[in-house]
Design a protein that fits this description.
The complex is a heterodimer.
Chain A: E1 4-7, E2 10-13, E3 19-25, E4 31-37, E5 44-51, E6 54-57, E7 65-66, E8 76-78, E9 87-94, E10 105-106, E11 110-114
Parallel strand pairs in A: 2-11
Antiparallel strand pairs in A: 1-3, 3-8, 4-5, 4-9, 5-6, 7-8, 9-10, 9-11
Chain B: E1 4-5, E2 10-14, E3 19-25, E4 32-38, E5 45-51, E6 56-59, E7 62-67, E8 72-77, E9 86-93, E10 101-103, E11 107-112
Parallel strand pairs in B: 2-11
Antiparallel strand pairs in B: 1-3, 3-8, 4-5, 4-9, 6-7, 7-8, 9-10, 9-11
Classes of the chains: A mainly beta, B mainly beta.
Chain lengths: ~120, ~110
């Protein structure tokens, strides 16, 4: 059973509000990822991290920002939410410390609705 | 440019029969391929994977086949069960570079009882 948690599961918030989506994993994984998914579409990588103090933007441009101050924690922040940010946000982690091919484990996701 | 493609958005199969889900990729640097299952409003769940040094990997009712020359992989589910109804995502990864998992658009499988 994967130990990666996202909160909140669902969030409805007004335009212009600042929000932080939380993601924590207890597996000690070095790599963490944020994906964004709209219904019927692929998962788009918006941020990833190789380890503490390492963050990179993904393939899909996003107005969100991330931080990785602790190995287990990878929060995503939107400074000013807009209706175009309405989507499902999925956090994942993987362990690639010379262990060969490994899968990514996903949290349950946060369904964000900006009204 | 979509590097991982699942050209069938949906598939319906009778319970007990075989389900075959297909995936194509364009990046020859990919060397690890995965299948995930996803229910609405939940995160994807890992099903099975295969590295590029193999052409088949089997785990219970799930088998993944890889054809490197055609840049094609498929997931076979035998026998299909109603509980298998979900969206299935194919993903690929390269160990040379950024270690990102690149996902396809998914195929919605419906297993009819």
């Amino acid at each position: 059973e994967a130990d990666i948690y996202q909160t909140p599961r669902y969030l409805v918030i007004g335009t212009g509000k600042k929000i932080t989506l939380e993601c924590s994993q207890t597996m000690g994984h070095d790599k963490m990822y944020w994906y964004q998914q709209d219904p019927g579409m692929e998962l788009h990588l918006i941020h990833y991290s190789y380890g503490v103090n390492s963050t990179e933007k993904g393939d899909l441009s996003s107005e969100s920002t991330v931080s990785r101050i602790r190995t287990e924690h990878f929060p995503l922040t939107l400074e000013s939410a807009r209706p175009s940010h309405t989507s499902q946000y999925l956090c994942a982690s993987s362990a690639d410390r010379g262990r060969g091919y490994t899968e990514a484990f996903f949290g349950q996701g946060t369904r964000l609705t900006v009204v | 440019d979509q590097q991982v493609k699942q050209n069938s958005p949906s598939l319906s199969v009778q319970e007990g029969r075989i389900s075959i889900l297909n995936c194509d990729y364009t990046n020859s640097m990919f060397d690890y391929f995965l299948w995930y299952k996803k229910y609405p409003a939940e995160g994807p769940t890992f099903l099975i994977s295969i590295s590029s040094i193999k052409d088949k990997n089997e785990d219970g009712r799930f088998t993944v086949f890889l054809n490197k020359s055609a840049k094609h992989l498929s997931l076979h589910i035998v026998p299909s069960q109603p509980g298998d109804s979900a969206v299935y995502f194919c993903a690929a990864r390269s160990h040379s570079g950024t270690y990102k998992y690149i996902f396809g658009t998914g195929t919605r499988l419906k297993v009819l009882a």
